[in-house]
Structures are given as structure tokens and as C-alpha cells.
Amino acid sequence: MTVPPDPALHATILLAKDRTGRVGADRIALLRAIRDGGSITSAAKVVGLSYKAAWDAVQVMNNLFDRPLVLPAAGGKDGGASPITAAGIAVLDGYAVAEAELASAMARIEASVSNGLSLKPLLWGIGMKTSARNVLRGTVSRVTPGTIDAEVTLAVAEGVEIVATITRSSAEDLGLVPGATALALIKSSFVILARGDDSLRTSARNTLAGTVIAREDSAISSEVTLELTPGKTLTATLTKESAEALDLQIGTRSLALIKASHVILAVE
To answer: CATH assignment of 1-127?
Structure first.
């Protein structure tokens, strides 16, 4: 039996910022559409996504890079223009260069393959996917070791730090020392919202102030997104009744409370 040859080799690119912030072809397509159309709403239609899926993808990209790639307008799909930033343009330019170079390299590789040899097992890429709603990239600014646990402080933006409590052995295994890059993973259900200012006293280790830039309600629950600093967001899930009681409208100042034990840290 003759084994049919592999079709032409193809490869995809994942752009990585310090090996943690990753943007692939699907998000590049969305970013290009935002650049061309000037809004997330129009871009979502171009790439075949719902507005919410496109908006969520923008938040992920902004949180994974040092600087925001897009400045989403507050107020959801009726919020107006969402301009791409200089950082976003740089990502698109870098991706285009990498794409052209990769296509040339793959053509050379394919030309060198013979005798039915398949390169597929050699071309697998590894990517990280997580069910956590919030993934924020940052730099370890401080590690306070204890007998069993360690408290790790991650600077995710200027003036914004997230503290996580993990086992001391985990901190050592992950190489979490000042200056190391890591990701903070936080489930939206672990984020508690409150009204007040930074002086509010709570038992939560993390108290982050932000402005509501999006809210989506269902019959029972609400998903509320806070902008901590330009381009850095945090999403919380709470009951619709609670969201209404707190009057969490677009533009409202709010606090996000997160226990240090509810923050998961990840590295490559």
C-alpha cells in the first residue's frame, strides 16, 4: 500500500513577549481588522466573532503585553471607536515579518523532505490554555518566604501589584525570584467587588481599584470588567442582584478584592 505524501507543509506563528504573552493567527486577524475598521464591533463582523468574543480577546491581548495593543471604548458595542495603539501596530508589523520568513523557511524544509518522511511530529508547538477568566502578565517584584508558604508579589502594571500565596517549594520550582516574569491566573468568581476607596479595610490581601468599563447581565448573574490602568483589566462574576445593589454601571469606580490564596502563578 502506498502512503500518500503529506500536503504542503504549513506552520503558524505565536508571538511571545518575554515567553509569556502569546498572540496567534486568530488574534492577529482580529487586530488587523480593528486597525482597518477602527472599532471592535466592525472587526468582530469581519473575523466572524461575536462582539463579546472579540472584546474578550482584546482584553487578553492587552493584559498579556506590557502596553495595551488596543484602547477599547467603554460602554460595550455602542461605545464608539477603539483605536489600535503604536504597540499594536508594532505587533502586526513584527508578525508580518515573521510570517514571511517562516513561509520561506517552510518552503526550504519541504523541498528537503523525501522518502515519505513526515515532519509533523517535529513541528508541534506548545501553547498554554486556561479556564481562568483573568490572565495578567507581570514581573516578580518581591518574594517573602515562610516556613511552608511563600508570598509572591507580581507587578502587572505601574502602581498595580497582585500578591499570591503559594507553597515555598512551588515558588522555588517555578523560579520565582525578583525580576522573573510570571502570569497571574484568577477565576472571575474569585474576584469580589465592592464600592469604596483604597482605604476600605478588608481581610483580602489584594485590593485593586478600577473603573467599570463593561457589564453583561444574564437572568441570574452579571459579568463586570474593571479597568485597573489603561489596557489592564480584571473581570468579576457576581449575581445580577449584587451588581444592581452596588449600582455597577459603566464609569463607576469600584474595588476588586482577591484573596492571595486564590491567585495561581504560572511560568514557562
So the answer is: 1.10.10.10
